[in-house]
Amino acid sequence: MADPLRGVVACVFDAYGTLFDFSAVAEECRAALGERAGAFIAAWRGKQLQTSWLLAAQGRHRDFWTVTGDALDHALAAFEIDSAELRERLMARYLTLPAFPDAPAALRELKQRGQRLAILSNGTPAMLESLVKAAGLGELFEAVLSVEEVGAFKPHPKVYQLALDRLRLPAEAISFQSSNAWDAYAASAFGMKVVWCNRSGQRPERLPGAPDRTIRSLAELPGLIAV
Question: Which domains does the chain have, with CATH numbers?
Answer without folding.
Answer: 10-21+97-224 (3.40.50.1000), 22-94 (1.10.150.240)
